[in-house]
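Outer membrane beta-barrel protein
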Amino acid sequence: MKTNYVIGWILLLTSFGMTSLGAYAQESKPGLVLNIGLTNGYNLTSGNSAVKNYYSIGGRINLIFNDKWFVGYTQNGSIVPGNLVENADFEKSRIYEYALSGGRKWNLGSQTYLRGNLNAGISEFKVKTDSGSMWDEDFSDSSTSYLAGAETAIGFKLNKYLAIEAGMYYRRYFKNDQLMIATGDLNSLGVTLSLAGSLGLSK
C-alpha cells in the first residue's frame, strides 16, 4: 500500500515537472534581441607584473539570435584614480579596452542561463607625464596593443527585461614595441558583476 502511495506521488510530481518544462519550452521568444549591459570588474595581474590589480567599469551591446548565438561590442576602462604602474615616471595611467565579441547562451532553466564568449580587439595604455590634477584626463601620451580574451558568466533573470550576471574572464595582450610597459604586464584574470537589459526586436 505504501509502495503504491509513493509511486503515485512520484508520478504526480514527474507529471507536474514535465508540464512546467513543456510550458517553458513553448514560451515564445523573440528571434532577435538587443542586449545592453553595464559591467563592474576587478582585474588581477600576475605577481611580478608592473601593473597593479585594478577595478574597471564598462559596457557591452549584443545582438542575440534565436536566444542562443550573439555578436557584439564591449568597452572597458580602469577607474583607479592614481597610477596603475609601480615606480613609474609619469603621474598617472589608464587602460582602455575596445573589442568585438561573439559567443553562445545556454538556458539552464526559466530564470537562469550560462553565457560564454570570445573577444578580440585593441587596448590603449594612456599616461600623463606632467604634474597636475589627479582627475585631469588630459593624458599626454598613449600606446596601443592587441588583445584577445575569453569570458563566461552565469545570469539570473530578475524579470522579462533585466538580469544580473556574475562571471570571470581572461585577457591576453600581444607585443607592441611601442608600448611603454611590457605587454605581458597587462595580462589579467578578472571577475565581473553586471546588470543586463534585453529588448526583443522581432517576433
